[in-house]
Design goal:
Elements (H helix, E strand, L loop, with lengths): L3 E7 L8 E8 L5 H11 L4 E5 L12 E7 L4 E2 L3 H14 L6 E6 L2 E8 L2 E7 L4 E2 L2 H12 L4 E7 L4 E6 L5 H6 L7 H4 L7 E7 L9 E7 L4 E4 L3 H15 L3 E6 L5 E7 L4 E6 L1 E8 L1
Parallel strand pairs: 2-3, 4-6, 11-12, 13-15
Antiparallel strand pairs: 1-2, 1-18, 3-4, 4-5, 6-7, 7-8, 8-17, 9-10, 10-11, 12-13, 13-14, 15-16, 16-17
């Protein structure tokens, strides 16, 4: 097995921050079991597999590729940071000559383009709808304790539960919150919730961030994800509605942290822009 392998830190321009993803370039077909074994071996929140769609495709010249994402325990239907990492490998390492790259995925076609020093992802906008508190009260209590909750929403497309803390709290409260995400597994066993988003309003005056977030997905084997593009497909819809804005600046305040530039479009899509740093190159 000779598979080019890269580790890319996404949504940052500094190595060892942002969200790391492994990216594999597949010249040939790879069996299902090997996809999962490689992702488990990499032990990052996601490992991306870029594959050629037809004979004669070239990682430098072709503009359309297949893309799949695996956590250490399972395949996932959408992953923003590993898509950005995949585009970074094609644009920056393989020197792909196209201005736009299209990925064929479980979530449909996703496009990535270069804009100055950022890569812009074209992702589906995923609305979240009001959620009956009683159904998820125990899960929320396990996540935030006695903190005041302002709003609870659910995104059926992503199976993400969005919990918005009171506007009286700031970034520091969210950052300092001690969350035992492993405990979520003993509370939510129905399969309805696969990810928990905690968010709080930011201070958008000047160059401040419009909102902050953290993301937990122990159901996929990821206790806390450092920076999550797919969660921001939900957050973008929510905060655009709450703030009455289409252009948003977000920060996911995990220990590694990362910044996302967001543009909510009128066609049910969202552009999420971020930087990247390639930190490892090798072969498997």
């Amino acid at each position: 097995m000779q598979i080019p392998l890269f580790t890319v830190d996404a949504f940052t321009n500094r190595p060892f921050s942002g969200n790391p993803a492994a990216v594999c370039l597949l010249e040939n077909d790879l069996d299902e079991d090997s996809h999962q074994k490689i992702a488990t071996e990499m032990n990052l929140s996601e490992t991306a597999f870029i594959r050629k769609l037809k004979p004669g495709d070239d990682f430098t010249k072709s503009s359309c590729f297949g893309l799949r994402w695996f956590t250490p325990v399972s395949e996932v239907p959408l992953c923003g940071h590993a898509t950005l990492a995949s585009a970074a490998v094609l644009f920056h390492v393989q020197k792909n000559t196209n201005s736009v790259i299209t990925f064929v995925t479980l979530s449909g076609e996703l496009k990535a383009r270069q804009v100055k020093d950022h890569i812009v992802l074209d992702l589906p906008l995923c609305p979240a709808y009001p959620q009956e508190l009683k159904e998820v009260e125990e899960l929320i209590k396990a996540a935030v304790g006695d903190l005041s909750v302002q709003d609870v929403r659910y995104s059926p497309e992503t199976k993400n539960l969005l919990v918005c803390l009171s506007d009286t709290y700031g970034r520091s409260v969210l950052e300092e919150l001690k969350v035992n995400a492993q405990h979520f597994l003993s509370i939510e066993k129905t399969g309805k919730v696969k990810g928990l988003i905690l968010t709080v309003k930011g201070n958008s005056s000047g160059n401040g961030h419009d909102f902050y977030s953290r993301y937990f997905a122990p159901w996929y084997g990821v206790l806390e994800d450092p920076v999550t593009g797919s969660a921001h497909a939900v957050l973008s819809s929510y905060w655009s509605e709450q703030l009455g804005k289409k252009e948003l600046l977000a920060f996911q305040c995990s220990r590694r942290g990362g910044e996302l530039k967001i543009s909510v479009r009128s066609d049910g899509r969202v552009d999420i822009a971020g930087q990247s740093a390639v930190v490892l190159k090798g072969n498997l």
